[in-house]
Design goal:
It contains 14 helices and 13 strands. The chain is α/β, with parallel strands linked by helices and about 450 residues long. The chain has two domains: about 30-320, Alkaline Phosphatase, subunit A (3-Layer(aba) Sandwich), CATH 3.40.720; about 325-425, Arylsulfatase, C-terminal domain (2-Layer Sandwich). Strand 12 (about 345-350) and strand 13 (about 355) form a beta hairpin.
């Protein structure tokens, strides 16, 4: 065969091989990261997780295009500690932010935003609650950090609706102009008080579900922006929650005090280039998100308590324990709670220890600690290695909380230093004006 014919044959072979390659973008390093946190999003009230009362088309789309973790868990039923763990990959005993009124995250800890900023990524955060105000420590590493604005001479807003958060997030994304980026959008809407706007208010009898429908619509706007800007095939998209909501289970209407799965199980969906859609039943944790994103980007991360989920994204198995805690009860003079899930069993360690066999009892109704004392003892010993000696309650929880922070949290219904500041609780709890989204976003 002549050299010309041989070269032509090689071109044909290469073309044939290319026709079987992954779609454009799948073999390139991801350009950006979109991280969306749905505050107070209980997984079993979302349609991709089996909820049949309302469709959430944008979460469903993401689940069909990415990897859905069926058993993902938070580290605490409170917004600030959970988000700190999300961005650092550390458990609360490691990063020392144990409840919403605790000291802010120390600058000594490295966040996902800092790691990416150091690599030349543009970083932008847009949050919907004063619980995550820039002075709480998560602004480190973000070039832009938009929180709830204050208005001199007027009652300060304590939260703002997701459509305003997403308006700013999309405007920022349009300004990245092809640069690598990390965009974090925090949607606080599902948090109490539940007050969804129309048409979401009329879409379901439960206003909590209506808020989730509204949050889903805002997620849809972000996904549509990625599509419009031709960034979808170069962007890692992660949607998760900080914690769930009690909704009356175990006698808890909202969240913060107890550590049952109703408030700890959260959504976790990851869509990334070259990752095939699947559902994963193994346990995953919020602390695994930052190591996973860095791994997908081919970057090293700081030491953490989490692990990369990339092996699972590609079809491998996970065998992870899940730790969680609630030290918030200490503010009311009650004992803190620590929880550990290992395999089929979950231990809740407190004044009245509880052990549940989640294979037989997924709703945590039958305490089997009497029949399984040896398992409980072994899990309690493991808990002691995580929390350390004498971790009850954390010292800062008994300290004085600055008045400004106390007022912020009281206005959102959180108890600080044993009581709710009634005057602060009367400060406007309005979510601010919800600018009407364009019809194409609905």
């Amino acid at each position: 065969m002549s050299r010309v014919l041989l070269a032509f044959a090689c071109v044909l072979a290469a073309a044939g091989s290319a026709s079987h390659r992954a779609p454009d973008g799948a073999n390139r390093r991801p350009l950006g990261v979109l991280l969306v946190t749905l505050d107070t999003a209980r997984a079993d009230r979302l349609s991709p997780y089996g909820f049949v009362g309302a469709r959430m088309p944008h979460l469903e789309r993401l689940a069909s295009e990415g990897v859905l973790f069926e058993q993902a868990f938070s580290v605490a039923p409170l917004t600030l500690p959970a988000h700190v763990s999300l961005f650092t990959g550390l458990l609360p005993p490691s990063h020392a932010v144990r409840d919403n009124a605790d000291e802010p995250l120390s600058a000594a800890h490295s966040t996902l935003a800092e790691r990416l900023q150091a690599r030349g990524f543009k970083t932008g955060a847009f949050v919907g609650s004063v619980v995550l105000q820039s002075d709480r420590g998560l602004a480190q590493g973000f070039d832009t950090y938009r929180d709830v604005p204050s208005q001199p001479g007027a009652p300060s807003m304590r939260q703002r609706p997701g459509n305003l958060v997403v308006d700013e997030a999309i405007e920022w994304l349009e300004g990245t102009r092809g640069a690598p980026f990390l965009l974090w959008a925090h949607l606080y809407d599902p948090h109490a008080p539940y007050d969804p706007p129309d048409p979401y208010r009329r879409a379901h009898a439960d206003p909590y579900v209506g808020e989730l429908l509204f949050a889903d619509a805002q997620l849809g706007r972000l996904l549509a922006a990625l599509d419009r800007l031709h960034l979808a095939d170069r962007t890692i998209v992660v949607v998760t929650g900080d914690h769930g909501e009690g909704l009356g289970d175990h006698g808890e209407d909202t969240h913060g005090l107890l550590v049952y799965d109703s408030v700890l199980r959260v959504p976790l969906i990851v869509r990334a280039p070259a990752i095939r859609p699947r559902r994963i039943a193994d346990v995953a944790r919020l602390i695994d998100v930052a190591p996973t994103v860095l791994d997908l980007l081919g970057l090293d991360g700081p030491p953490s308590d989490g692990t990369s989920l990339v092996r699972a994204l590609n079809g491998g198995r996970l065998d992870l324990e899940a730790y969680a805690e609630s030290l918030y009860p200490a503010r009311m003079g009650r004992a803190p709670l620590h929880a550990l899930r290992e395999g089929r069993f979950k231990l809740i360690d407190g004044p009245q220890p509880e052990l549940y066999d989640l294979e037989r009892d997924p709703f945590e109704q039958d305490n089997v600690i009497g029949a399984r004392a040896r398992i409980a003892d072994a899990m309690r010993a493991r808990l002691a290695t995580i929390v350390g000696p004498g971790d009850a309650p954390h010292a800062v929880l008994n300290g004085e909380v600055p008045r400004d922070l106390r007022e912020r949290l009281a206005a959102l219904g959180y108890v600080v230093n044993g009581v709710i500041d009634r005057d602060a609780a009367q400060v406007s709890r309005e979510k601010g004006p919800r600018r009407r989204a364009q019809p194409r976003w609905r």
